[in-house]
Amino acid sequence: MDPHAYYDRVSTLPYCTKAYSLRSPSQLKQYSQSQTQAPSYTYTPLTDPYATPQDAAKGTIPLFITAGITLAQPVAAGDTVMVVSKSSGLFVINRQFRLGSEIVTVLTNSTQVTTIPISRGTFSTPIAAHAAGTLVECSNNSIDNQIRLPVDGARGATWFLVWDQWIGPECVPPGSGLKSWKNWQLSVGTQDSRWAETRLRFSLATPGALGPVDVRYYGHEWGPNVSKVEPLAPQVNQFMVMPSRWTRYFYLFDMLGEWDLTWLWVADELTDPVLLLDGLQLRTGSGLAKLWAEQNTSTDRLTGNQPRGDLVLYADDVCVLKNPPPEDLPGLLTRPGRGSVPSAVRNVQVVF
């Protein structure tokens, strides 16, 4: 079965306005948030060393990342402070840093100073002396250089967004230490401002799962059918994301009336699309701006008894459709057919 048959079909529909396969190094570079940093998403399927490589853009979240900070003075084996080359907001209490093969932990919030109190030998790493100029790497739980894809979904139309994601088993809690991801962000306006983030709640996972999906709303206006905005409620069903299984997200926005009515479904290779949000009354202002592959925890402290390895995920096949005919929706709401037979969801009724 062609894993990209759905994308090949949907991306050629006459009402498809944007299509991003993400299976192109130049495309990944073009839409990376920072053009000076190396992309966090890559596409090298023929040389991918991951145990179960996928034919998609690969996002890697390393245990530590560099931030252009080094030791300004040597650190002896018995020292309990380190003097760094510049101050940084990275030096918050309980965040870990790596000096060579030793991991140290910051003891106090030290964002405005260059002399940092530390505890040594975190995770039982060997305590050692470190020379001036040693790289100071900071712990990390998030994609460092996000992909931000233009949606350009102006009001006065209906819009359908769909994309696929696969997340590796090393992300399963509690071993991964992850609590929650701002997984995918929809932004609005010319300032690319956060509007609604599709979250993955690792802390609420059932055994062996990654966690359920919910949505946090950053907008300032909502209608009477919305009972809560963090997370958005009512949410009519729950969807538990599983590791090593392609998951597909579908958003539908009716932006023709007073409110921007919002629907969300999620499916995977074994589960037909499940409705989570059912026409909630939200406001985008002038419309949707971008879709971010964010994968951001908002905290980069490592937890657990030992450091984890790199976290790996894959994503691809993003499509944006303008004014899809309602009769086409059942054929669009199909689970990803990578290794399983896709099945269209039945009895879809969306009233514009």
Q: What would you say this structure looks like, in words?
A:
The chain has 352 residues and is mainly beta. It folds into two domains: 244 residues, Jelly Rolls (Sandwich); 76 residues. It is 5% helix and 38% strand. The strands form four sheets. Strands 1, 2, 3, 11, 18, 19, 20 and 22 form an eight-stranded antiparallel sheet that branches. Strands 4-9-6-7-8-5 form a six-stranded antiparallel sheet, with no helix packed on it. About 3% of the residues have low confidence.
List keywords for this structure.
single chain, mainly beta, Jelly Rolls, 2 domains, 5% helix
Question: What is the topology?
Answer:
Blueprint: H1 5-10, E1 16-20, H2 25-30, E2 41-42, E3 57-61, E4 64-65, E5 81-83, E6 96-99, E7 102-106, E8 115-119, E9 136-139, E10 147-154, E11 158-167, E12 181-188, E13 193-200, E14 211-217, E15 228-229, E16 232-233, E17 240-241, E18 247-254, E19 260-268, E20 271-282, E21 287-296, E22 311-322, H3 329-332
Antiparallel strand pairs: 1-22, 2-3, 3-22, 4-9, 5-8, 6-7, 6-9, 7-8, 10-21, 11-18, 11-22, 12-13, 12-21, 13-14, 14-17, 15-16, 18-19, 19-20
